[in-house]
């Protein structure tokens, strides 16, 4: 989605109805503000499920990846991110590392991650799809709504009106 909004304004308007993620992520994509309903993947140093999910039609959704905070291997690089963009995903939040950061910065896709590492991940398919994941003192449940900008990430049980 390309609507203009500010997470600080959303918190001011909705208060404690919104959860605010305490994890400090870095921006990697060219789209610095994004929002959409959440899909989840939980994995550890293995990106096969991420690639599988982002190869499906995204329809403005945001994939939240709980990689356990590992920075040992990258869970997403330029090829997977390009697939996400081509398939209509609004963004990806990775509690872990990404790679190919110069290329990621050119993509019209919201991408937040903890950091980067050039080492690629395993591809065995280990992990869980569409189950709640938690980090940053927030639970990211499938089908709840994520709003992200330079100030951070907030989660809402329902879609919020944002100015067009």
UniProtKB/TrEMBL annotation:
Record keywords: Lyase, Magnesium, Metal-binding
Function: Catalyzes the aldol cleavage of 4-hydroxy-4-methyl-2-oxoglutarate (HMG) into 2 molecules of pyruvate. Also contains a secondary oxaloacetate (OAA) decarboxylase activity due to the common pyruvate enolate transition state formed following C-C bond cleavage in the retro-aldol and decarboxylation reactions.
Gene name for this UniProt entry: rraA
UniProt enzyme class: lyase
Taxonomy, superkingdom: Bacteria
InterPro entries associated with the record: RraA, RraA/RraA-like, RraA/RraA-like_sf
Entry protein name: 4-hydroxy-4-methyl-2-oxoglutarate aldolase
Keyword Lyase in annotation: yes
CDD domains membership: RraA_family
Organism of provenance: Streptomonospora litoralis
Needed co-factor(s): Mg(2+); a divalent metal cation
An example Gene Ontology biological process: regulation of RNA metabolic process
Residues the record lists as binding Mg(2+): 100
